Amino acid sequence: MTSEGTRVDERQDHHVHSTFSDDAVSTLDENVAAASDRGLRVLRLVDHVRLSTTWVPDFLAAVAALDVPDGLEVCTGVEAKILDSAGRLDLPDGLGTHPGVDRVLVADHQFPGADGPVSPRVVRDGILTPQDAADALDVVVTATVAAMHQVDRAQIAHLFSLLPKIGVSEDQVTDEHVAALGAAAAATGTTIEVNEKWACPGPRVVRALLAAGVELVVSTDSHVASDVGRYARVSEILRVADSS
Description:
By secondary structure, this protein is α/β, with parallel strands linked by helices.
């Protein structure tokens, strides 16, 4: 389904993991078959990387060797977490500009502290006042904006999925925060995904990002082929964004 209001095509899945990630169970071939069976038009195969990762050439070769059915476009990506408040990424050297990697997915897996990643639980335990929450949000947004400038082709994965882990609600995200994210994404050509697994970002942020000229894509963040291209929470987010 393509929503005319949000202009986001649900016949795509821009964040699908394979057995190249240590927490996924389906192969690249199984993901492609699932995408074709669901009638998807675009599939982005993505796996987790760290600074020490060496298997990306094997991953790209395996994707290039796939038997892709007619009507399906297969794209590539790697997912790297934000390491610190300056937006540094847990990404091997050269991958940010590698021609075979279509997108680098920027992920908020841990809190981006000044000196490196901090456990969300530690941050949550330290948020005692509304100002603490506001300060934590400022850091998350600032780091995310900075990360967009670290690579040529970024995609923000599950924007704000970190917030409930640190005891903050997306409702506490200000219009200024969203404006900063939208301006940076539009300026850098960064895409932002509406994520099924984490049900984020919500309708208010979706509307604001679209108004800022940001390209939004949908994703399941699938770790098993049976989830590829299956949307429920994303569809509801886009429906509410359209109707508000």
